[in-house]
Fold:
Amino acid sequence: MPLSVSLTGALVLGAGFLRPLRHRAVASGRELLGRAGRTVVLWLAGLALAASLARHTFTDIVPQDSPAGVISDLLGDVLDASPELGFQARLGSTLLYGLLWVLGVLAMALLVSRKAPLPTRLVRYQEPVRPAAFAMLVLLLAYVAVGLVTGLVVAATKGHTADTFAVLLLGLPNLVWMALGLGVFASWEGKVEGPFGLPMPHVLDQVLRGEEITTLDVRALAEYDGRAWWLVPAAAVLLLAAAFLMAVRSPARTRLWQQALHFGVAFALTMLAIAPLTRLRASLGLSLLGIFEIDALGGEAVLRPHLWTAVGLALLWGLAAGLLGGLLASPVRRRGDVTRTQPGPGEAYRNTGSAQRGGEGGGPDGT
Structure:
């Protein structure tokens, strides 16, 4: 699933859904469901229109100076035919997955927002959930921003501008979120075989190129490019920054072990969500008269994560980062801080923080 356009659409849709709610403290469940229902109906209508128009056929898909190009030209001369590559959308499955996608986006928008109102019965759950969810959003977007800047620099200085922009426009989140997983020592497996290339960095193609399934991890990348080891400290620094952000946004009464647990679970769930999105399977083949397979024009690309290993590693890294982030944030005065003063008439404590709406800070009831 090429995620560059998907991520952009999710951010725009989530922001548009939350904007009318930003000045509200509490909203009823019926009101939120009604607003979500209208958004879903409009989204599915637009998606149906786009899916009905989403079809195209490409020609000249084989480089003319390659062996496959020679065979393709020969077949074209003999049979008056040439290879074509086309696509069209399946309307039913598009609407089904589009429905699941938009519901997921709206739910995540409510999870990460600090100001979006919730039904009264759900307010109590926002303290452990929203700071951690927001920290995960910032972490993922930080990786995308770093990858975008890196890609633009590569396009400007290293050449291969068209290939680099193909990566940025199609699969930038796929690659940078895979880099996050590789940075915490998660691994993938896959292969790339055939005459075609894929929109991915050259070092990935080098590791995966071949007929056998190959394990992809930071060590395998470092064998071709030693700079791959920088993925590990980059992941450590960005995780620590996200954990610090979560701790600062959490109420002051949140204990250190709770911060570590919240961040660890949040990072594990995030890895459980993003690792499957990096899966890839593409096949290309050509048969002559539906009988003879022409191997020179065929190939396959496969990439899949070791999912549960990645989730377990994310949990461990998240626990450690959450603990360190909480320690670093302890000197920072946060919302809901309470300091002891000399007891006055009817007063033993003075609240030095500011109250938050919706139960995020202050007392247990949100005051």
About this structure: Confidence is low (pLDDT under 50) at residues 338-367.
